[in-house]
Amino acid sequence: MKAAMQSVMPNACPCGAAKYADCCGRFIAGGMLPATAEQLMRSRYSAYALGNEAYLRATWHAGTCPPDAIVQDDAAKWLGLEVKKHQQQGDAATVEFVARYKVDGRAHRLHEVSRFVREDGQWLYVDGTFPEKSK
Fold it and tell me: Has residue 72 got a pLDDT over 80?
């Protein structure tokens, strides 16, 4: 178990919404499916923070999931998540978010609009676009 998991699991969820066990932990452990694309996106953020490649693969649409490693940078320290917008129409949804992280002491932001689909009752990540920075 990674040190990051040990310090996070019993208390705060990496996504920042609640206690880990009551939030993303119930999805990552495999006991429940996220009811919304936003819940899936939050749990995927937590899986990145915890280095859980198996969960990321299980929640990525088979048509777009990369064959190579998903979690590539063990040096990344995930710092926080801000969900900006969640829109759903039937079995399709988008979630816009900003994730903050550090690599080698340098801060970074990932601003993404992610697309999700629901197949057989399960939300899956399809892909994302990266909005241009405001000037």
Answer: no
Give the separation between CA 46 and CA 109, rounded to whole angstroms: 16
User: Under a CB-based contact definition with an 8 Å cutoff, are residues 94 and 37 in contact?
Assistant: yes
Q: Tens of pLDDT along 10-60? A: 589 999 999 999 999 999 998 899 999 999 999 999 999 999 999 999 999
Domains of the chain plus CATH, in order, are: 3-129 (3.10.450.50)
Residues in the chain: 135
CB count in 10 Å sphere of residue 42 = 25
Q: Which residue has the tokens 């900006």?
A: 84
Sequence letter at residue 20:
Y
pTM: 0.88
